[in-house]
Structures are given as C-alpha cells and as structure tokens.
UniProtKB/TrEMBL annotation:
This is General L-amino acid-binding periplasmic protein AapJ. Residues 1-26 form the signal peptide. Coiled coil: none annotated. CDD domains: PBP2_BztA. InterPro entries: Bact_solute-bind_prot3, Solute-binding_3/MltF_N.
C-alpha cells in the first residue's frame, strides 16, 4: 500500500519544488513603475511622523520611508518616489483609479475596506488606537468624563463611527462635530469649537506638539477606544506588485530582528555567515527572483531607510518630535506585536 503512493508523492514534491524556484512574472504595476521610473505613493496632506513635507517640500515619516524602501528595492533609488498628498475622501478613489501605485497613508485595515473596495492590505507597519485630546482646563482625566461634550473629528475615517460606538456602549451622551478635512477638524478644536478632538493616538501626539498654541496646555486621555492597525494597500488583481509591497516592509522588520542596520549592512554583506542575515543583504539564496527583482532588493531597502526599528525611532520614537514609546510596536520577541513572516 505504501509503495502505491510513493511515485505520486515524489511527483508532487518535484512540482512544488519547481514552482517554488520559478521566477515571478512581472505584473502590470511593476512594468508601469519601471517604465515611468518612479513609484507613485499616496500619502497624507501632512501628519507628523507618518508623512509630512518640510518647508522645502522634502517628505519624511514612517509611511514615506515605506515608499522609499519600495523604490530602492524596485528601482534602485529611494528618491524615485512621487508623493501624492490625498485627503481621507480622495485616498481610496485615487488608488482605485490607478492614480497611485500604493497608498501609504496611515490607513486602518478593516474588514469593510479589505472586502469591498478592491484592495489588498500589505503589512501592518504601526499598531495604533483612537484616543482623545482635551485641554487641561477641562479638568477631565478619562474619556468617560466627557458627558455632553462636543467632540471634533474628520469625516471619511473610522474615527466617527468609533466615537459613536464607544459612547453608545458607555451610555454617555456626546455631540460629534464632523469636518471634511483633517486640518479643519483640529483647527476647530484648538479654536475652542469643541471640547475634545479624536483621531489615532499617534496623530494626537503630533498635533499637540506641532499645532497646539501651547502643547503643555493639552493632554491625551488614557483610553484607546479602538484597534487601528495601519498598513499600506494596493489594488487587487496584481499579485506580483502585492507581493513586493508586502515583502519589502517584512524584510525591514526581519532586518531589525536579525540585527541588520543601515550602518552595518555593507559589513554584513562582506562578512556575515548567518544565513538569515545573508538572505537580507543579498549574499544568500536568491529570493529576489521570486518577486521579479534582483538579489539585492532587500539590501537596497535597508541601506535606504534602515530596519523597522530605525524607521520607528527616527520618525515617531523617543528621539522624534512625537516621542512615542515602542509599546505594541516593538518586535514580537520583545513584548510587542510587530512580526514578519520569515524572509526565506
């Protein structure tokens, strides 16, 4: 009985091995990116730590670095990115219409968005949660003390529904004032139109530091009322581009786990005998061909922006303007949720 199945199993194993070793076919998005010579990346109009231009128009942030890493992996140059600022209402239609190649705009991964808009979310790059910013003059220390408060937020986001669900569950009456643009919503709050402002906690930290008349006059309340896993997304129907957009950030996460940094990548490329490090710096097995890329794809990405921990530290961590702790965004083996499937 055992012998009857051995030939079939051997054939299946051979087919699987050949399929695993076969190079990827270039998808239409990758072809378009290479022909154009740039990656079109949809970003925010300006959220500190994630995507914001300086006075000279130079973009920086966690989402910006993700797009630069993809450009480095695909085109060999992290500068070959066209950043397209989009508001909440524009972001999805721009991706659907093909006006951008990837949307990296601190966007929450939800079932509705995943299943109904024709998109694939790639890799979670930041675990966030919705919170509340209030003036210290209000003398509240908890969101549960906001009874009858007026709360400013932006339309076209998950924030509006989260507020409604949270306070309905708590049986606390509040009044939500919705604005079409993010800027209009926080400016209304700082001008006194509302007693509280709500959005993702990471954005609240940036607004308090950058936009508040006096940052010390405002406090972020301790409650997080939602899960907001933020991830870039791409159009469905192009599996090759989806794989690239997924595995570049995964490689940056794994680079942190295995100690590959922007500074030591060259030295490890020359000398490392660690198989995991070798795969990341392009001296191990050639995984790039499976993505339609060359062997140095992840090495260039790491050299361009550093590993995930370096990106976090520079853009939103304790050394940044936001001064956010790693918390849930630490690596899985350091008490956090950041976890990449193996790059192998």
């Amino acid at each position: 009985m055992k012998n009857r199945f051995r030939p079939a199993l051997a054939v299946a194993a051979t087919v699987a091995a050949l399929a695993a070793a076969a190079p990827a076919f270039a998808g239409k998005t990758l072809d378009a990116v290479k022909q154009r010579g740039t990656v079109k990346c949809g970003v925010t109009n300006g959220v500190a730590g994630f995507s914001a231009p300086d006075t000279q128009g130079n973009w920086s942030g966690l989402d910006v670095d993700t797009c630069r890493a993809i450009a480095a992996a695909v085109l060999g140059d992290p500068k070959k990115v066209d950043f397209v600022p989009l508001n909440s209402q524009q972001r999805f239609s721009a991706l659907q219409a093909g006006e951008i190649d990837i949307l990296a705009r601190n966007t929450t991964w939800t079932l509705t968005r995943d299943a109904s808009l024709g998109f694939n979310f790639t890799t979670i790059t930041y675990y966030d949660g919705q919170g509340f910013l209030v003036s210290k003059k209000l003398k509240v220390t908890s969101a549960k003390q906001l009874k009858n408060a007026t709360i400013c937020t932006q339309s076209g986001t998950t924030n509006e529904k989260n507020v409604s669900d949270y306070f309905r569950a708590q049986n606390i009456p509040v009044k939500t004032v919705v604005f079409e643009s993010f800027e209009a919503s926080f400016k209304a709050f700082f001008s006194g139109r509302c007693q509280a402002f709500t959005t993702d906690a990471s954005a609240l930290a940036g607004l308090r530091n950058k936009e508040a008349p006096n940052p010390d006059d405002y406090v972020i309340l301790p409650e997080l009322i939602s899960k907001e896993p933020l991830a870039p997304l791409v159009r469905r129907g192009d599996d090759e581009w989806f794989a690239i957009a997924k595995w570049v950030p995964n490689a940056l996460i794994e680079a942190e786990e295995f100690g590959v940094t922007q500074a030591n990548a060259d030295e490890l490329k020359a000398n490392s005998k660690d198989p995991a490090q070798q795969r990341l710096v392009g001296t191990g097995e050639d995984l790039g061909k499976l993505l339609g890329l060359d062997k140095d794809w992840s090495f260039r990405a790491i050299k361009a922006v550093g590993n995930y921990g370096e990106m976090f530290e520079r853009n939103v961590g304790p050394k940044s303007v936001l001064k956010l702790p790693r918390g849930s965004n630490n690596l899985w083996n350091k008490g956090g949720l950041i976890y990449a499937p193996p790059v192998r």
